[in-house]
Amino acid sequence: MKMPANCQLQIKISFAAIGALVLALGPLVSRADETCSSPYLARIDGQEEFVYVWTLGVEGLGDGADKLVTVDAKPDSPSYGKVINSASVDGRNEAHHAGFTDDRRQVWCAGLETSRVFIFDIHTDPTKPKLTKTIDNFAETTGGAIGPHGAYALPGRVLIPCLSNATDKGGRTALVEYSNDGNYIATHWLPTKNDARGAANSELADGYGYDARVLPRKNVLLTSSFTGWNNYMMDFGKITADTEAMKHFGNSMVIWDFHTRQPKKVFAVPGAPLEIRWAWSNNHNYAFTATALGSKLWLVYADDKGEWQAKEVAPISDVKGGVLPVDISLSADDKTLFVGCFGDGKCRVFDVSDAQKPKQIYEKLIGKQVNMVSQSWDGKRLYFTSSLLAHWDKQGADNEQFLRAYAWDGKELRPSFDLDFTALKLGRPHHMLFGSTKIGSPRIVAAR
Amino acid sequence: MLLHLQNARKRVLRMNFKEIGVFILAYTFALCLTNASDSPRDSDYDYDPPAPGSYALPVVKLAADGALLDTNNKVVNLRDLTHGRVTVLSFIYTRCAAPKGCPYAVGILGQLHDLTAKDKALAKTIRLVSISFDPEYDTPQHLAAYAENIREENSGCEWRFVTAKSRAELEPILLAYDQAVDKRSNPADPQGPLYHLVRVFLIDRQGRIRNIYSSGTLDSRLVLADVKTLLLEESKLSNQ
Prior knowledge:
The structure holds two protein chains of two kinds. Chain A contains five helices and 29 strands. In chain A, strands 8, 9, 10, 11 and 12 form a five-stranded antiparallel sheet that branches. A four-stranded antiparallel sheet of chain A has the order 3-2-1-29, with no helix packed on it. The radius of gyration of chain A is 21 Å and the shape is globular. The N terminus and C terminus of chain A are likely disordered. Chain B is globular. The longest helix of chain B has 20 residues. The N terminus of chain B is likely disordered. By secondary structure, chain B is α+β, with helices and mostly antiparallel strands. In chain B, 40% of the residues lie in helices and 18% in strands. Chain B contains eight helices and ten strands. Classes of the chains: A mainly beta, B alpha+beta. At the A-B interface, helix 1 of A face helix 2, helix 7 and strand 7 of B.
């Protein structure tokens, strides 16, 4: 129904009044946090104080177990750039991605091999995450989804995009929801040709999954696609030599109605589109992704008619065979995109002021291999880790395992600190999350 | 509209300075949301809401019980406020002045209340509950005055304002509903002395939480679609 003209005027007046009142009351809470996080997440004031690193255990190295490592990121701290805590879990689970709950009181750390999810309390003492619960019946509870790939904060719950299924351990998979206190809620299977559930372009639907991210003001959820358990647990050299295995990678992205969790349209995005980064500006209706096997930047965007589309917008290097771009980080002003390239260990930086025409403006060798890249909300600090998957990491001298921090001045990356996770007997560092004591004091009642 | 503003002016005159600021925020949001279920998109909620009944709302968990105080200073069981009707339950504190915080949540419930004043059938079906997590300030007497200022229509659905005897009695309820509340480091913070996430719960007649909204998803059109989805679900089940 069309809104009456007088109502439109009323709303304009009202928002003007709000603006005036906000100014009278003082500034809103400033945002300072990594730019890759869920928009539903509580934000940190000021600089990140800790970097939590979800780390794969290595047999014979230290205790050999997966662990959540806490690194001090306060520049004025005596332990700046040092490991200040390490919280191990039971065994090796192919630690991969992790995520906060929306109140930022818990970190959910997922294992791709065992499908176990480890829930840490980081609120009671942010310097010492404490394991409080383990979900170890994931496949049974979710109706056969396996390979939980981190956790994405939604109001009062987390969304866990998965990579595989218990039936054939291939790429068909699902999105799973749990409440913040660890109760299973629902499973939403990715659409396939034979079960498109109303999605347009159903012939493109391969059912694969990887990342899942929401643009709240458009009520859309976007998912990407990787590969199943059979492939991500196989040695990388074997996969590339196995033509049949190479057929089992995702070549699609799906846009969903977020509120109803119904898939709406499937896009052809060949070559395993991985991380999704929605732009932050209120009038930027687009997201970037990078295809790991295609070495391309893709844009998913609303066209002039508001219809969602996907298009390739730039190559990521001209290196023959590609550079295996595995993570991207978009600056809070939507102008700069950092791309972690596992193949040659470089970070490539793109000017994406014109999202349709990204231009590479800088590159730097981070190490023999590089995977995740995370940046602070002000864009001045970037952190890189090295490990992709236990069976995909490089061998011998190329198997560097590190957390490396850099300062970014808009033109170049300058080293801040460097932690050797092998020398420290920790393992293979993967996903990073930022923490702070300033996100809140203890509950009002508990403090009494 | 003119009468609306005159009434609001009278209410403001009965308040102290701090309350005036909070009231203006809540009232402004309520104005913004008037007829929002009929309204098209805006920049914060730039989409069309789904058709009620075209989707499912899986059970999140059971709504917890607990002892609270109503605005008459009488003990009420929260269970009695989360069963028998479709309930929209919000945690608030009246000193909150964060634009996207409690004033916004109260504005959403206020709009639902106004809608039920025009829809008698809906009024008999749903209930609104606002629980204060600031019991020392939000006493039953204070909440009663606040409720009188906020509720626009006497003929709308049941809208209960409740608080607790003490913070200690409130704590298990906050934990059960996963409602984080912290003191701000600056008690004189212009947004209010407490830091919290916005949490609004949709609860079915059987006392099961079916959706949780925060400021990013608290769109009155979505809440109304969800309420109607639960009612259609009941209708479908009763016909089976």
